[in-house]
Design a protein that fits this description.
Elements (H helix, E strand, L loop, with lengths): L4 H20 L4 E2 L2 E10 L5 E9 L4 H10 L1 H12 L8 E7 L1 H24 L1
Parallel strand pairs: 3-4
Antiparallel strand pairs: 1-2, 2-3
Helix pairs in contact: 1-3
């Protein structure tokens, strides 16, 4: 289903604020890796926000996600203070790991492997 204009506006606002909050709380750098918000999806009734987090160079993304979820109340409180004048209700926040980067790296490896095999066949 296509997102409405208001969903996109609220999603963009929450994306910006959550990124800032993660930096302020020291959750954007975990175990030497980086965490960032890759996307925010809002339900049409604006009551639920699904936040997709991208983990870069973090060995255990599940543990990092759990760490962020454990501080979810603190993140939501900070978010409420920042956007309370723009929204009637603060949406319920759910966090998900975005594995797009893993797929990108996997595809790059596959393309490199195919390229190397083609070059090997040309040399024979």
């Amino acid at each position: 289903m296509k997102e409405g204009k208001r969903q996109k506006q609220v999603g963009s606002l929450i994306n910006k604020e959550i990124n800032d909050i993660l930096q302020r709380l020291g959750l954007s750098m975990i175990d030497g890796g980086m965490v960032s918000v890759s996307a925010v999806r809002i339900t049409p009734d604006l009551l639920e926000a699904r936040i997709y987090l991208s983990f870069f160079k973090i060995e255990d993304p599940a543990a990092a996600l759990k760490r962020i979820e454990d501080r979810g109340w603190e993140i939501k409180k900070e978010l409420a203070n920042r956007i309370k004048l723009q929204l009637r209700r603060i949406p319920e926040i759910k966090y998900f790991a975005d594995d797009t980067l893993d797929h990108v790296f996997k595809m790059e490896d596959l393309f490199k492997k195919i390229r190397d095999e083609e070059e090997g066949n040309k040399q024979q």
